[in-house]
Amino acid sequence: MVDVSDSVLGISGWFEDFAPGQRMRHARAATVGELEGSGPAKQVMNTAQAHFNDHFLTGSSLGDDRIVFGLSTASLVYGLASQDTAEHAVAELGWGRLRFLAPVHHGDTIEAFTEVVSVEPGDFPDASGVVGFRHWGRRQDGVVVFEGERKTLMRRRPVETGAGTTGSGG
Fold first, then answer.
1. Phi, psi (rounded to 5 degrees) for 61
2. What is the helix (H) or strand (E) element at residue 71, kind and residue range?
3. Where are the extended beta strands (E) located within the chain?
4. What is the rounded CA–CA span in Å between residue 79 and residue 108?
């Protein structure tokens, strides 16, 4: 059976392409804008003034500007890593050990990095497997602002079945 969605996906990033200790610097970076910076803090009713009060942090050790909501920073880092680490994912199994190490302000640019920490094959030779990642992001000044772990159920690379069709792999 042909899975037509495979034709729009990258040629790498299958379960077999990951090995513990492998490191990646992801190609894209993103500048945090107003919408993703404070909007989510308001949506979840986070009452920390540092997220949505322009003058609250003036003169503080965290900087003079509003701080981006931490889960927005985590989502941005995971999103920047996703082309290389989740394009062939079946399911996200969980995030853990989230650490927010330095403030992120509106206008900061974040780049993402990944280390593969574990690769666990499925119960059957063609079954999807679980890949564990450690992601981190840093600001334009080189300061690491976020670290987190993620487990993803990953498809295996399809195997040609002989008649020009591709198996679903898992």
1. -70, -15
2. helix 70-85
3. 23-31, 89-100, 109-120, 129-139, 144-154
4. 16
* pTM: predicted TM-score of the whole model, two decimal places: 0.82
Phi and psi for 112 in degrees, rounded to 5? -120, 150
Distance CA 6, CA 11 (A): 9
- List, in order, residues 6 or more apart from 112 with CB less than 8 Å away: 25, 26, 29, 76, 77, 78, 80, 81, 135, 136, 137
Identity of the residue numbered 111? E
Mean pLDDT on 123-150: 94
- Quote the CA–CA distance of 67 and 100 in Å, as a whole number: 12
**Contact 81/146 with Cβ under 8 angstroms?**
no
Query: What is the mean predicted confidence (pLDDT) over 126-143?
Result: 95
Q: Is the pLDDT at 94 greater than 80, yes or no? A: yes
Distance, CA of 167 to CA of 96 (rounded, Å): 33
Buried b (16+ CB within 10 A) or exposed e, 128-140: bbbbbbbbbbbbe
**Rounded distance between C-alpha atoms, residue 146 and residue 103, angstroms:** 9
